[in-house]
C-alpha cells in the first residue's frame, strides 16, 4: 500500500504568497500606516486576536516602539465565545484566556488578525472588546485580505490583498507558533 504523500513547500497544491522577508516588509508598512493614520501613538493600544493575530500584534507594537520610542500596550483577545457559529461548532471550540491588562476606555484600539475572510471573526472581536472598556476608536489590521466578505467589515490596514477562490485555504504561519514565517494558499 502506498504511503500518503505529505504536503511540503514543494507540493504543487501549496502556493507561497508571502515569505519571511515579504511579511516583515508588510508589517513595517502597516506599522507606519497605523502611526500616520492616528497622527502619532497617543492613547494607542494594539490587541491581537488569538491565535496568530497575537504575535503579529506584538511585532507591530515592537516596530512602532522602535520608530516612535514609545511602548504601546498589547493585549490578547479570544473571540471563541463571541462567535455567531458557536452553536454549530459548540464542543469543538477551544476557549483560551484573553489578556488585556489595561482599560480600553478612550483608547484607539487596533485589532490585529492574520487573515480577514468573511468578517465574522472581526465582528466577534468587536463584541469581545466591549468587555474591556469603551474604546474611542477601533481599527482593524489584517496581514492578508482574501476577500469574500459576508459582513460589511473592512480592514483599515492590510499587508497584502490576495484574491482567492472560496474553496481555497489561506494559512498564515508565524515563527512564534509554527516555526516559520510565511503565507500559503492550499
Descriptive notes:
The chain has 186 residues and is of the alpha/beta class. The chain has a single domain (15-185), classed as Rossmann fold (3-Layer(aba) Sandwich). The protein contains five helices and eight strands. Strand 2 (44-49), helix 2 and strand 3 form a beta-alpha-beta unit. Helix 1 crosses helix 2 (53-68). It is globular. Mean pLDDT is 91; it is low at 1-9.
What's the layout of helices and strands?
Blueprint: E1 15-18, H1 20-37, E2 44-49, H2 53-68, E3 74-77, H3 86-89, E4 108-116, H4 120-129, E5 137-145, E6 157-161, E7 170-173, H5 175-178, E8 182-185
Parallel strand pairs: 2-3, 2-4, 4-5, 5-6
Antiparallel strand pairs: 1-8, 7-8
Summarize the structure.
With 186 residues, the protein is α/β, with parallel strands linked by helices.
Task: List descriptors.
186 residues; single chain; 8 strands; disordered N terminus; five-stranded parallel β-sheet; alpha/beta; three-stranded antiparallel β-sheet; 5 helices; Rossmann fold; globular
